Design the sequence.
C-alpha cells in the first residue's frame, strides 16, 4: 500500500515542481492542456487508449514498469491512462516510446506481457546487436488452430528458435532445462499438423 501513496505523492510533486520552476506558465491559458504524446519540460507523457491497456503494459504490481525504469534509468509515473517518464535523455525517451508501443500492441492483441517478454523487448530496443532482430520478436508467436491462446516467445533466443523451425526442416537447440525448447517444438508441431 505504501507504493501506491508514494507514487501518487510523486505525481503531485511533479505538478508543484512545474509551478515553482515555471510560474509564468501557471497563468497561461494553454498550460493545463496536456499533449497527446510528447516531451514537455523534460518529461514525456504517453496517453494510451484505455486504462485496461495501461494495466497490461504495467503488469502485476507494476513489475513491468520497474524493469523499464531499471533499463532506462528514469522515473515512470502512471495516472489514469497516461504514462509519464522523467529524468532521462532523448535516447532513453525514444527507447521508452518503442518499448511502450510494442507492449501496448501485445496487450491490444489479447496477450498479457510477462516479465520475460518485457525483458526481451527491452533487450531488443536497447542492445545494438539485437536491434537487427527486433522484428523477429513481433512475429514470434505460435497460434495453435482451435486453441484458446497463442504461445509468445519470451526472449530473442526463443524468437530465433521459432523462426528457425519455420524456415528449416531440422533444427537443433541446446540449452538448460526449463527454457522452453520442447514446449515450443510441440506447439509448432501442433500448428503444422492441425
Sequence:
Amino acid at each position: 500500500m505504501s507504493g501506491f501513496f508514494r507514487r501518487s505523492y510523486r505525481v503531485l510533486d511533479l505538478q508543484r515542481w512545474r509551478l515553482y520552476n515555471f510560474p509564468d506558465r501557471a497563468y497561461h491559458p494553454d498550460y493545463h492542456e496536456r499533449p497527446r504524446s510528447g516531451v514537455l519540460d523534460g518529461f514525456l507523457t504517453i496517453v494510451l487508449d484505455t486504462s485496461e491497456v495501461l494495466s497490461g503494459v504495467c503488469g502485476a504490481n507494476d513489475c513491468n514498469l520497474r524493469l523499464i525504469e531499471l533499463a532506462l534509468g528514469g522515473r515512470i509515473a502512471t495516472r489514469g491512462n497516461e504514462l509519464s517518464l522523467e529524468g532521462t535523455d532523448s535516447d532513453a525517451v525514444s527507447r521508452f516510446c518503442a518499448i511502450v508501443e510494442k507492449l501496448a500492441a501485445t496487450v491490444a492483441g489479447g496477450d498479457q506481457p510477462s516479465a520475460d517478454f518485457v525483458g526481451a523487448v527491452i533487450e531488443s530496443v536497447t542492445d545494438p546487436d539485437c536491434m537487427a532482430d527486433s522484428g523477429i520478436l513481433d512475429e514470434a508467436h505460435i497460434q495453435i488452430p482451435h486453441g484458446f491462446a497463442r504461445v509468445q516467445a519470451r526472449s530473442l533466443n526463443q524468437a530465433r528458435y521459432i523462426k528457425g523451425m519455420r524456415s528449416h526442416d531440422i533444427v537443433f537447440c541446446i540449452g538448460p532445462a526449463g527454457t522452453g525448447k520442447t514446449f515450443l517444438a510441440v506447439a509448432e508441431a501442433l500448428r503444422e499438423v492441425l
Remarks:
- The longest strand covers residues 43-47.
- The chain is about 55% helix and 15% strand.
- Residues 2-21 form the longest helix (20 residues).
